[in-house]
From TrEMBL:
Pfam families: MutL (PF13941). It comes from Pelomicrobium methylotrophicum. NCBIfam families: accessory_GlmL, glmL_fam. This is MutL protein. InterPro entries: MutL (IPR006230).
């Protein structure tokens, strides 16, 4: 029997999933603390012991594959030419590569900008700018400015192809990886090569820099950052493989302690006739990270974004109680809900984080008045026709009614210009298996698809009603 051990070295926990590959079946799960800051093998050993306690003696695994978001994830800075064009393309490439974007710069870098970048201490810098054969002055100026900086991180160059070698010469002394331009022509995105280059830098260098390779004897390979593994799982679920169908266009939302991540796999073209798309084309597989919408590290920001009174009303708690609990959560980010009022607040925080994150991820439509009359103009992706919304993450998995949290991702008639999903199936990734399926897809894609589909459970209104009736 072929088996796989799929590992996520996270910032809080080291998580394991053991899989029977032949039957696309989850054998068991284990978890240990994240000890990447000291000795990563300690947390890994505890996770293996936990797995063994659940399933008995461990098999000799055929595959042992890992992803990681430990040590704060992949810190990345992007530099582009124009904020709305190449700088935005670089931002989309960085987020799609699983990075934590800590800074984004455009135009000619000033000395002050360079000092800010040095202070941010990124793991990777993505340098873009100019279409192929277009403006080269700014990207070369920025290459020269970065060459004179104290930055020691790898620099991925994804700018004007005509001056790529000249930029590399200017960056002499730095580690430079050349890849294809993220915007070879005006308004044409080409971010997959940059994503691949970032992923390779992660595998070749960051794994060592973060200390993850200390546990090398316990796994075969770290393949990608964990957010990329989740995205690959989402892509597999949408597209299917090996002649087996997927779910079609979908959305995945993951409210976490520090951020809320949203992934969409959809073309996002206007679904209504007469609507005109405007702005940079959106990638079919898109990830956004809302750094101010974390259930613990940014709990005060969530309350501020949605309004304390709104949060209290949704939780069914007095505003004073909500204010007190938020203060306690902000001081103790490891805290899990232990009382009815804490569970009610967690539910309201999850609803707020998902509603805001999906609203930012989805496109909008507005009426623009032209000399020919009013025109409907779309910015971003139209997700109204998406067929499935999948929730993952602790606040959903541990909720008694995850559907009531996940439904806040949907279209709201009170906000008709926000192009969120209108009538999708609501599904729950009940055992946080998406990352594992994304990893397994690299070696056994059909088994990964079958496993991913088997771990989803419906949590929409109809299934909630059925559960209530049967109970």
């Amino acid at each position: 029997m072929k088996t796989a051990l799929l590992i996520d070295f996270g910032s809080t926990y080291t998580k394991l999933r053991a899989v029977d590959v032949d039957n696309a079946r989850l054998i068991g799960a284990g978890q240990g603390p994240s000890t990447v800051a000291t000795d990563i093998t300690v947390g890994m050993m505890k996770a293996l012991q936990d797995l063994e306690a659940h399933i008995g003696p461990l098999p000799r695994f055929t595959y042992r594959l890992a992803s990681s978001s430990a040590a704060g994830g992949l810190r990345m800075v992007t530099v582009g030419l124009v904020k709305e064009l190449t700088a935005e393309a670089a931002r989309l490439a960085a987020l799609g590569a699983g990075a934590k974007l800590v800074g984004a710069f455009a135009y000619r870098l000033t000395r002050g900008d360079v000092k800010k970048i040095e202070a941010l201490a990124p793991d990777i810098l993505l340098l873009a700018g100019g279409t192929d054969g277009g403006n080269s002055e700014v990207v070369l100026h920025n290459a020269e400015a970065l060459a004179a900086s104290a930055l020691a991180c790898p620099i991925v160059y994804a700018g004007n192809r005509a001056v790529a070698e000249e930029a590399r010469s200017l960056l002499c002394g730095k580690t430079v990886i050349l890849t294809e331009n993220v915007m070879p022509e005006f308004n044409v995105l080409n971010i997959e090569p940059a994503r691949a280059a970032i992923r390779q830098v992660f595998i070749d260098r960051i794994v060592h820099a973060k200390g993850i390779d200390r546990a090398q004897a316990m796994f075969d390979q770290v393949l990608m950052p964990t957010p990329v593994a989740v995205m690959e799982g989402a892509r597999l679920l949408a597209d299917g493989c090996g002649g087996e169908p997927g779910l079609g266009p979908l959305l995945v939302v993951d409210p976490g302690g520090a951020t809320t991540d949203v992934h969409s796999v959809a073309e996002g073209q206007p679904s209504q006739p007469g609507v005109i798309s405007h702005g940079l084309p959106e990638p079919r597989v898109k990830r956004t990270v809302e750094g101010d919408l974390g259930m613990r590290h940014n709990v005060s920001a969530v309350a501020e974004a949605c309004g304390l009174e709104t949060l209290a009303r949704d939780a069914g708690l007095p505003a004073d109680a909500v204010r007190r609990l938020i203060g306690e959560l902000a001081r103790d980010v490891e805290r899990l809900p232990a009382s009815d009022e804490e569970r009610a607040l967690d539910r309201a925080l999850g609803r707020a984080a998902i509603r805001l994150a999906v609203k930012r991820h989805a496109g909008t439509v507005e009426t623009v008045y032209t000399v020919q009359g009013p025109v409907l103009v779309q910015h971003g992706k139209d997700l109204t026709e998406v067929g499935a919304v999948i929730g993952t993450g602790g606040v959903l998995v541990h909720s008694a009614d995850p559907g009531a949290i996940l439904e806040t991702a949907l279209f709201d008639p009170a906000e008709p210009f926000s192009l969120r999903p209108k009538a999708p199936r609501l599904l729950l990734d009940r055992d946080y298996s998406l990352y594992a399926c994304g990893l397994l897809a690299q070696v056994e894609p059909v088994a990964a698809l079958r496993l991913a589909l088997s771990r989803l459970i419906p949590v929409d209104q109809e299934s909630r009603h059925e559960r209530t009736v049967s109970a």
